[in-house]
Write a structure and sequence with these properties.
Layout lengths: L1 H15 L4 H10 L2 H28 L1
Helix pairs in contact: 1-3
């Protein structure tokens, strides 16, 4: 579970652009690229669906 949370934290930091180069290198050594990509895709889909839901809610009212 700690591995997943650490990878999630790394992906979120990368999404917001606040991750240092040193931390990025350490994350790629600690986590597999496939787990980082999978988490990034899931977070992107969740973000896109939440934006879509907000737009539908605003347009319908």
């Amino acid at each position: 579970m700690r591995h997943f949370i650490s990878a999630l934290q790394s992906v979120l930091a990368a999404f917001f652009g606040v991750q240092s180069e040193q931390k990025r290198r350490a994350d790629f050594q600690e986590h597999s690229i496939s787990s980082i990509i999978a988490i990034a895709i899931i977070l992107f889909i969740a973000f896109a669906l939440s934006i879509y839901a907000v737009v539908v809610l605003v347009v319908s009212t």
